[in-house]
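Schema walk-through. Below, the input block comes first and the output block second. Nothing else is stored per chain. Lengths vary across the set, and this one has 216 residues.
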Amino acid sequence: MANIFPRWSNRLPLLVIIGLFLVGTAAIAGIWYYFTPKYTRVGYQPVQPVPFSHAVHVDQIGLDCRYCHSAVEKSWYSNIPTASTCMNCHNQVLKDDPRLAAIRESAATGIPVPWVQVHKVPDYVYFNHSVHVNRGISCVHCHGEINKMDEVYHAKPLSMTFCLDCHRNPAPNLRPPEKVTDLAWNPHQHLPKDWGEKAKKDWKVNASQNCSACHR
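--- output ---
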């Protein structure tokens, strides 16, 4: 009896198995690479070139966020302080500490310290820090309790859902402008329940839900 199937079909099961193995390997590799905290971001905590503790500088010493992040009220981005800003204090405090060698070198040479960026939104997303800060959105709402972090980590998802939840109902997240950088201050303990709704109306907070607000 003549064979109704071509000879190459005998190798078909093996080819299917190999194909499934390659596809499965590629899928696992992609998930392993892109679904790490570095890409999903929440929990991402890179090692920085200098061990800077927000818990010490903000929570213990009481530095205002704007002393280091001086552009946050005026610019779309929150700037990283220059080494000269650090040396305003550290030319006297811990001035010979080996942990600050990179800061002293940067201040002397003008070459920036290679800090590793922690908080980041995709390139196709537009976010303006000054708009949010000047309308009563505190740092802790997007960055978590950064004033208690010895090493900064990515605490909030900063996803589209995260942003839209606030844009749809911003009132609970509003606080007096003078309390925006007071990270230990709890609005739920100090403000009446309807304060946010009143502030939203008085300040004309109209958080857009249009795609073009963030995708420009």
